[in-house]
Amino acid sequence: MHTFLVLAEELHFGRTAERLLISRARVSQMTRTLERRVGAPLFERSSRRVTLTPLGHQLRTEVAPHHQGVLDALARVTEAARGTAGVLRVGFSSPLAGETVMRVSEVLRERYPLCEVQIREIHLSDHFGPLRRGELDVQLTELPVDEPDLTVGPVLLRDARVLAVSGGHRLARRTTVSVEDLAEEEVVMMEGMPVLFRDSLIPARTPSGRPVRRSAVTRYWQELLALVAAGEGVTVAVAQGAVYYPRPNLVYIPFDDLGPLEYGLLWRGTDASAKVCAFAEVAKEVCAAEQG
Questions:
Q1: How many domains does the chain have?
Q2: Where is each HTH lysR-type domain found (predicted)?
């Protein structure tokens, strides 16, 4: 019946054979068998064209919805057997990561219709809490991460690191800055950041060995930016800040000696669920396609 429906759509034995990955002779054989069963021709054939007979039209109209229903049912059962059905809770920690999660979720829903994706924001001040408490299944977050109970998946994004300063700051007119410049500043930062990530984001010392004065002053990113804009210090951020957090008295200056901040997937334990694995595979595909 599937062969009949494809032929009724293509109206060409060769194209039907190509779609079904079988020979043209096999398509003709199955069509004749069905016509013998019906007791009448379903197609009008000539050397130049193939058309449906009135009975062929009737059969296609009546069979197609039921055939699609069978295919949908098989897809749902297969999805359930693979463990990709149900709710997948995904976290993100920045606007760039959030937009990526949204795009990946759209593709995931198309590929696995029974997988319902729920999205929520996580905060640097409680980086792993929602994941460890079972409130999330997977999150797209800043790296590095080295936690014994958590597994780090593939790196999906990279964003250049920048120094955020007030518009009246001595460095505001610079086109680039270096880590050495931090030795002369009060570097304010978020409270509660994991030590490994904090030290990777904002080095404790410059390359020449001078200490960097770092102060954890707030748990809220917007409040941190307000303090920087008011001249209460500087902070290390990423380039997306200029897009998502522009302020009239805030300047973002690229570092010329710090690599980009990386973002990767993170989940509990060592055995990812089928839904988490599916999300990770789709995420790799989507991000690879976007990065060319």
A1: 3
A2: 1-53
